[in-house]
Amino acid sequence: MRFATQAQREGKPLKRLNQVSLSQISDQSKYVASIQKNKLRGRIATHLLHDRCAWPLSSILSFTISQDRISITCKEQSDADLVLSLEDGKFLIAQKKEDLYALLPNQVIPGESLQIDKHQLALIEVVDA
User: Fold this and answer.
1) Phi, psi of 9 (to 5 degrees)
2) Is position 109 within any domain?
3) What is the spatial order of strands in the sheet that 102-103 belongs to?
């Protein structure tokens, strides 16, 4: 099965994009509005999403980076590159390797993300059904 893009149907040449600026994404205002709604509703993220797995923020999380991959465990590990816990709705750094880049959000709400080295991890809210 072959799919044709609109550009191909119109006979226009295709352009390869290597990166897209966030300002070019039309849904950015919807994303920002969604985060603002979460702040107003007092919602708090319950889990960290990475590689299709949700890690509970109710536990201490240890992050280890090896060969450009990140592994996460739900316990404090003394040899981890970064150890985070959640207290009063804010991340606390229990330990961090000196040369590790880590950017944590100011508020732990669904839709925010944190950056650890080259890895971006999303904060989500899991609702028990």
Assistant:
1) -65, -35
2) yes
3) 53-56, 47-50, 119-124, 113-116, 102-103
CA distance 11 to 9: 5
The pLDDT assigned to 41 comes to: 61
CA–CA dist 90, 84 (Å, integer): 10
Q: Does 33 fall in a domain?
A: no
**Considering the entire predicted model, what is its pTM?**
0.67
In a domain, 55, yes or no: yes
What does the radius of gyration of the chain's CA atoms come to, in whole angstroms?
Answer: 19
Domain limits at 73? 44-129
The answer to whether position 32 is within a domain reads no
